[in-house]
Design brief:
This protein has twelve helices and 17 strands. Strands 3, 4, 5, 6, 11, 12, 13, 14 and 15 form a nine-stranded mixed sheet that branches. The chain has helices at residues 33-44, 78-81, 86-109, 127-142, 154-157, 180-193, 242-246, 263-269, 307-321, 365-380, 385-391, 404-421, and strands at 23-29, 49-52, 68-69, 117-124, 148-151, 168-177, 197-199, 204-208, 213-217, 220-230, 249-258, 275-278, 285-288, 294-301, 330-340, 347-350, 355-359. It is α/β, with parallel strands linked by helices. The chain binds flavin-adenine dinucleotide.
Length: 423
């Protein structure tokens, strides 16, 4: 998987100042937004934290995503609320709605230059989507969220997007976009400054369980920790717990970045520079970044991706939405793994010997990972209320064994057909 365009102008983390520790209170596995946020939150509260990243910070989804910063949970809230008491449902709703604010306040607090920008369009391709968006607006406003505007025809869409592909939409003032790797590196620097040890090129290959856990690290000395957080999400290799792997499927999604577009072109296609996602299951998601590039993502696949075909496919999708981009040049194409759960709600858990995990942000992790990392860290620090609520949600396993990939691919093929037939 090629690195994203985001990595082009990012400085590597400075080498660790202190000797490599052999023990710590909390070991965090995975240097994406979840793990780094948890490390930062714990270090700020004086905990002795070591974060172990197999490659470099941002190697996983956090350094290669579309940069969409979305409010709320990735699926209709009733998938959460019907399993909870009214009190716990309110708590879960408020937590989901706090995630974007948490990003904004961390950006301010740590002075992270990461091109944060608000304004988001959920774009409807046909009438069923318009109805779904109106139902979402109804549900969200009933719960007090007053930042959605329904756009019920092309005239209403015109201030935001000029494309014949869409017939309506929902504009959200409080969602937006971010350069995800700049944000993540800013958090990692802040975590290091707060005292967390961040160790790159440190792949954990085995964990000996017990009150004190021994982490075996490839080409490095072992580390002993009382608590372990598994934050490897779709990239977590053999050390995941069976309960985790059965409940997570890995989907590959890909992103194309053009060379910078002219201001005139941007004014023509996306006048308000809103970040956009359509409502298909195998959705297109796109935005104009701070360098005027079109960052266009899509093409979910349960099978291995041949990057040779990806560019042509993404270009076809982009030019269907904006035929005027037929001559725009491709600068970079990359892919990454998304972890999804059956109900698209993140899966939280804990073992009896204090191994905590969260996974399955289902393509919605840029904001929710910051919330999830905070929830895990709070649980470690003794405030487990939000953790307990999220952990109590049931997650169905995916079909197992050798039939797993074909079954998932078949399911995705059905949804793609449904999208195409506008059912
Ligand atoms: C192409 C793409 C586009 C996306 N677009 C969006 C979007 O626009 N908006 C949105 O909200 N979400 C999006 N997502 C999803 C989002 O990026 C993820 O939900 C989020 O980044 C997950 O963060 P994480 O920290 O949990 O995991 P990751 O960022 O995946 O980090 C996991 C890390 O764990 C490390 N690791 C794994 N195993 C080990 C081990 N044994 N030892 C040490 N380290 C280990 C990996 O190397 C990796 O760096 C997208 C994802 C992809 C792939």
């Amino acid at each position: 998987m090629l690195t994203s365009i985001y990595a082009d102008h990012i400085d590597a983390l400075p080498p660790p100042q202190k000797d490599r520790p052999h023990t710590c209170d909390v070991a965090i596995i995975g240097g994406g937004l979840t793990g780094v946020t948890a490390a930062l939150h714990l270090a700020e509260h004086g905990y002795d934290v070591v974060l172990l990243e197999a490659e470099t910070i941002g190697n996983g989804g956090s350094g290669r995503n579309g940069g969409h910063l979305c409010q709320g949970w990735p699926n209709d809230f009733h998938h959460i609320s019907h399993q909870l008491s009214a009190h716990d449902a309110d708590l879960a709703w408020a937590a989901g709605m706090a995630a974007v604010d948490m990003v904004a306040s961390r950006v301010r607090k740590h002075n992270i230059a990461c091109d944060l920008q608000f304004g988001y369009l959920h774009a409807a391709l046909h009438h069923r989507h318009v109805n779904e968006l109106l139902a979402m607006q109804h549900e969200w406003s009933r719960r007090g969220y007053a930042f959605l505007t329904a756009l019920t025809d092309r005239t209403a869409l015109a201030p935001h997007i000029n494309s014949q592909s869409y017939c309506g939409g929902l504009y959200d003032e409080r969602s937006g976009q971010i350069q995800p790797l700049k944000y993540l590196m800013g958090l990692a620097l802040a975590a290091g400054a707060a005292g967390a040890h961040i160790l790159e090129h440190s792949r954990v290959i085995k964990i000996d369980r017990g009150v004190n856990k021994t982490l075996h690290i490839e080409h490095a000395p072992q580390l002993t920790a009382s608590r372990v957080l598994l934050c490897g999400n779709a990239y977590l290799t053999d050390i995941g717990l069976p309960d985790m792997s059965r409940r997570l499927a890995q989907v590959t999604s890909s992103v194309l970045a053009t060379t910078p577009l002219s201001d005139n072109m941007i004014q023509h296609i996306l006048p308000s520079r809103a970040t956009v996602a359509d409502c298909n299951t195998a959705l297109n998601y796109f935005r104009i970044d701070a360098d005027n590039r079109m960052i266009f993502g899509g093409r979910a696949s349960y099978t291995n991706v041949n990057l040779g075909n990806v560019e042509a496919d993404l270009r076809r999708r982009m030019c269907t939405v904006f035929p005027v981009l037929a001559n725009a040049e491709t600068d970079r194409v990359w892919s990454g793994r998304i972890g999804i759960t059956v109900n698209r709600i993140p899966h939280f858990g804990r073992t009896d010997d204090d191994i905590y995990f969260v996974q399955g942000f289902s393509g919605h992790g840029v904001a929710l990972t910051g919330l999830a990392g905070t929830i895990l860290a709070d649980a470690i620090m003794g405030d487990a209320e939000q953790f307990e609520v999220m952990q109590s949600l049931r997650h169905m396993p995916f079909p197992g064994g050798i039939l797993r990939t074909p079954a998932l691919a078949l399911g995705m093929a059905w949804y793609k057909l449904r999208d195409r037939l506008k059912l």
